[in-house]
Structure formats: C-alpha cells, structure tokens
Amino acid sequence: MKQGRTGLKSKGQAFPSHEERAKRQKRGPSSFALSPAQDWGNLPHHVVLQIFQHLSLIDRARASSVCWRWNEVFHTPDLWRKFEFELNQPATSYLRSTHPDLIQQIIKKHAQHLQYVSFKVDSCIESAEAACDILSQLVNCTIKTLGLISTARPSFMDVSQAHFVSALTVVFVNSKSLSSIKIDDTPVDDPSLKVLVANNSDTLKLLKMSSCPHVSPAGILCVADQCHGLRELALNYHLLSDELLLSLSSEKHVHLEHLRIDVASENPGQTHFHTIKRSSWEALVRHSPKVNIVMYFFLYEDEFEPFFREETPVTHLYFGRAVSKEMLGRIGLNCPRLVELVVCANGLEPLDEELIRIAERCKSLTAIGLGECEVTCSGFVEFVKMCGGRLTQLSIMEEVLIPDSSYNMEQIHSEVSKHLGRMWFPDMMPTW
Fold first, then answer.
1. Mind listing the UniProt keywords for this protein, alphabetically (predicted)?
2. Is 266 in a helix, a strand, or coil?
C-alpha cells in the first residue's frame, strides 16, 4: 500500500498545484506559455508583416484566414509591391497557376500597390491571352518593373497583335515611372514604343526586347533618342544601326552599362546581315568606356561574313552553332576587349593557332568554354600559360583535348593547374 501511495504521489507531481500556478503567474513573461494577451492573434502588426514576407503566396493566403487581424496584414500594401502572375494551362503544364479569385482580388484591391510585376506563361495562347486581360485592367497601377516571360514559345506571339498592344499600352500610359521592361518574344510594335517613351522617358533604365519582329530600327532609335537614362538594352541585330549607337553615345545620354545583341538566322542563306561601322562602335566606347557588349550568335557558317572584319569592342561572345577557324581567327585579331568566349562547336581542325592569337591580343580574357572542338594538349597548355591566373573560368570537355608528344591526358591537368595557380580538371561527360 505504501508503495502504491508513493506512485500516485509521484504521478500527481506532474500537474502543478494551485500554489505553484500562482507562483508561475507572478514570474510572468519568463514562462514558456503565451498569456491571453500574448496569443498569436495579438502579435504586433509589424511582426506579423515580417512573418508574412517570408511566406509563399499560398501559405500567406492560408495564414490570412487565421483571424481578422492576420487578414488585415494580408492586405498591407507592402506585401503587394512585388507579384508574379503564373498563368499555365493544366492540360499542358505541371506548374500551378495563380488562382482566378486571387487575381480578381489583386486587381480590385492592390492594383495601385503593384510595382514589380511579372507574368510567367506557358506555350498556350490561352495563358498569354489571360496575361493580356490582366494587363488591360491595370489602369490604376504605378508599375516600375514589368516582365513578360514565356517558358516556351510561341505564347505571346500567337496572341492577336491588336489585343497585346492594347493591353501593354494601358500599362505604358498609366504607370508613368517604368524603369525596367522585359518584353522578349512579343508582338510589341513601334507605335506602342512611342507611347512608352511619351510617358516614361525620364525613368526607363532597362529595356529587353529580343525577338520582337514588329519593331523597326526607327522604333528602337526613338527609344534611344528620348530615354537618356537607358543603361541596359537587349535587342536583335537587325535593330542595331550606326544611328542607334551614335544616339546612345550622345552627350545627353548616361553611360550605357550593357548592350546585349542576338544575332540569329531563322532561314539559312536567306537572312541578310548588315555591317556596323567601326567609327560607330568607337563612339559608343568613348562615351561609355566600361560598357559590356554581349553578342549571341546562332548563324550558319556562310552567314558570318559581315562580322569582325574590323575592330569591334565586343566583350562577351557566345556561339550556339558551329563557327569556322577563320571566324575565330578574326576574333583574335579584332576583339581586343574580349572578356568571355564560348564556342559550342567548330569541327575537326585543331584551334591551336586561333587560341594562342586570342591569348596574345585579348588581354582582358578571363573566361573560355569549348564544346565540340579540337585542341592539342601542347597548344592548350601554351594558351593557358599566356593567359595565366587571369582565367577565372576554364571549361573544356576532355574530348576536346588531343594528346601529343609533349602531354598526355594524365599530365594535362597538373600542367594547366600549375599555370592557373589552382587545381583544374577538364570537364567530363556524365556516365549515367
């Protein structure tokens, strides 16, 4: 019996007595339990706001249903300055779309709060049309950044041009403070760019509009002539002109930081590429000596003729298709500002001479990548030796390197590592 009583007593100690509870209440905040005045529903507004800022949209919406105070925080303008509309069709995409009810709530309650907005759509025309419908309702917006992103083509290009331009113009007219616009692969046209310029010329700093076939060189020139704060521009080569470069080099214009140019051929042998004067390039570099000029090439071999026959201040070059030895030789001769070079493919002729010439002439080169090419191990070591430790990125497939009398594949990594000043190995094809 004694033993049984002892057991009951020890169990009873797990529950605090009246006196112990009174002592704990006197101790106050040091107790782990939240008092009624400290429950989650009574957390300060700024604390809940900070918590909400770290939640995904779905979790934030769920949390807003906890109580009226959290729902009030859910509609705080600060939480709606940045928003990405995801518009995907269930039949063709595994990604979840922004719920239609939430979209309507945003348009009704938060359109005037939106500042950094993007639309991500899949390849379906229905998704792009839904994006246009939302854009056309943003009449009270003050957007600073707008991005239209297609995860797969054609999307926006399938939409009626009149519908797209009308919707985009709503934002161009009403925002008045657009700073950054990304509208690649869209049917934007010259008249809509004129509307953009008329309402946002003092604020526009970044414009990305590659693959926009309805824009002419005159249309993009209008932007450069009026938007003197433009610091970054991305466009197709057919929009590039001597007049555009000179406009970007005028005294009124700020220093350009990035010029990105896509040089792509849709119809092999049928695309004509014009030549930009050396004097126009030189004017741009004099005005903006630190400008990065990035060119992406997707051409066929016989279409490279107009390029790099004279000195060109390109800094980053990416070749997505095969490029000839002759072309790479021209780069070594005429691209002294080159910082990065990536060659997807070349052929079966070693590129030793071309790489050594690039090392000699391109003193700013810090990154190089070679895909389906060939270089002898001796030629590659000489190239690395000439560039030295300034090569921060060196990506070469093992299949590119050809063993010779001086170096085999076992020796190449230690020799290259010695000249780089760090451990280096060639890239290898995965075996799985």
1. Biological rhythms, Cytoplasm, Leucine-rich repeat, Nucleus, Repeat, Ubl conjugation pathway
2. coil
Residues 415 and 322 in one domain: yes
Asked whether residue 392 is assigned to any structural domain, the reply reads yes
Q: How many domains does the chain have?
A: 3
Cα 284 to the center of its chain, rounded Å: 24
Does 211 fall in a domain?
yes
Phi, psi of 222 (to 5 degrees): -60, -40
181: nearest Cα among 203, 161, 213, 158: 203
What is the pLDDT at residue 15? 47
Same domain (yes/no): 90, 70: no
| H helix or E strand, kind and range, residue 344 | strand 340-345
Residue 161 confidence (pLDDT) above 80: yes
Least confident of 21-30, 78-87, 107-116, 231-240: 21-30
| pLDDT tens, residue by residue, 190-214 | 999 999 999 999 999 999 999 999 9
- Alpha-carbon distance of 224 to 247, in angstroms, equals 6
Yes or no: say if 367 and 393 are a contact pair by the CB < 8 Å rule. yes
- Residue for token pair 């991305």: 234
Which domain covers residue 391, as residue numbers? 308-431
For residue 415, what pLDDT is reported?
A: 92
Determine if the pTM surpasses 0.70.
Answer: yes
Same domain, yes or no, for 92 and 126? yes
Q: What CATH number is attached to the domain comprising 61? A: 1.20.1280.50
Q: Mean pLDDT over residues 370-384, rounded?
A: 94
* Range 308-328 average pLDDT: 94
Nearest 5°: CA angle at 313, between 391 and 227?
120
Integer angstrom CA distances of residue 421 from 173, 379, 394:
55, 19, 13
CA 133/CA 300 separation, integer angstroms: 39
Buried b (16+ CB within 10 A) or exposed e, 202-218: eebbbbbbbbbebbebe
In a domain? residue 229? no
Domain boundary pick from 29, 56, 79: 79
The number of helices, as runs of H, and strands, as runs of E, in the chain is: 16, 14
- Residue 102 and residue 73 share a domain: no
Residues 379 and 342 in one domain: yes
